[in-house]
Structures are given as structure tokens and as C-alpha cells.
């Protein structure tokens, strides 16, 4: 039988590799933030403006990618490079689904967001 206490500890990933992977994925997260911010500004400066619900929904679309990146980074930075990249990719997938939900809601029920 093997003893689990004799398992060799894994070495942490080099800092340059962590920064490179996080930087590449960070560009995609930044694109999601800028896209949501542009949508918020276009809707807010329109002729009707936004009501409170519209501000809350569209600001959450700006903040959610930042929170998702932070959580994915925290979950994966002590793992191997492939697992770290998969954690960031999963977070990016959640951001994409959330963004599609916001755009879908704004398309179908857009009148409920307007009129500030």
C-alpha cells in the first residue's frame, strides 16, 4: 500500500508564467468590461436615460467580469498552468453567459430599463 503522507509536494508555478496566463486572459475580461461599460454609457445618454433598475442591471454587467476574474485567479493561481488557464477560461465562460443574459433582457424588456 502507498502512504499518502509521502506524496511529493508540487512546486508552485513560476511568477512569469502566472502573469503571462493571467495577462492573456485578463485582456478578454477587460474586453468584457469595456463592452459592458460602452453599452451602459450608450443607454444612459439616450433620450430616455435609465431608471434605477437599468442602472443596477447594467452596472452589474460592468462589475461581474472583475469579480469573476478575481475569483478564478484566486482558485487557480496555486495550481499547474493548465488548471490555472482552465479556471480562468471557466470564469470567462460565466462572464459570456451573464453578458448574453443582460443583452437578451435589454432587448426583450428594454422599456423597463428606460425612463429615468
Account of the protein in words:
The protein is mainly α and 116 residues long. It has one domain (26-112). Helix content is 72%, strand content 0%. It is built from three helices and no strands. Helix 1 packs antiparallel against helix 2 (52-76) and helix 2 (52-76) runs antiparallel to helix 3 (81-108). It is elongated, with a radius of gyration of 19 Å. The chain crosses the membrane at residues 12-34, 54-77, 84-108. Keywords: Membrane, Transmembrane, Transmembrane helix.
Lay out the secondary structure.
Layout (H helix, E strand, L loop, with lengths): L14 H30 L7 H25 L4 H28 L8
Helix pairs in contact: 1-2, 1-3, 2-3
Cα separation of the termini: 69 Å
Task: Find the structural class using helix and strand composition.
Answer: mainly alpha
- Main beta sheet: none
Shape: elongated
Number of helices: 3
Poorly predicted runs are: none
Approximate helicity band: over 70%
Beta-strand segment tally: 0
Keywords: Membrane, Transmembrane, Transmembrane helix
Transmembrane segments: 12-34, 54-77, 84-108
Amino acid at each position: 500500500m502507498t502512504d499518502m503522507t509521502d506524496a511529493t509536494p508540487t512546486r508552485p508555478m513560476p511568477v512569469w508564467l502566472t502573469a503571462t496566463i493571467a495577462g492573456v486572459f485578463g485582456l478578454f475580461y477587460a474586453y468584457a468590461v469595456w463592452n459592458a461599460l460602452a453599452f451602459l454609457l450608450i443607454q444612459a445618454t439616450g433620450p430616455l436615460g435609465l431608471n434605477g433598475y437599468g442602472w443596477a442591471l447594467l452596472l452589474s454587467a460592468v462589475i461581474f467580469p472583475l469579480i469573476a476574474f478575481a475569483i478564478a485567479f484566486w482558485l487557480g493561481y496555486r495550481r499547474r498552468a493548465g488548471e490555472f488557464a482552465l479556471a480562468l477560461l471557466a470564469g470567462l465562460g460565466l462572464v459570456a453567459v451573464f453578458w448574453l443574459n443582460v443583452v437578451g433582457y435589454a432587448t426583450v424588456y428594454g422599456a423597463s430599463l428606460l425612463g429615468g
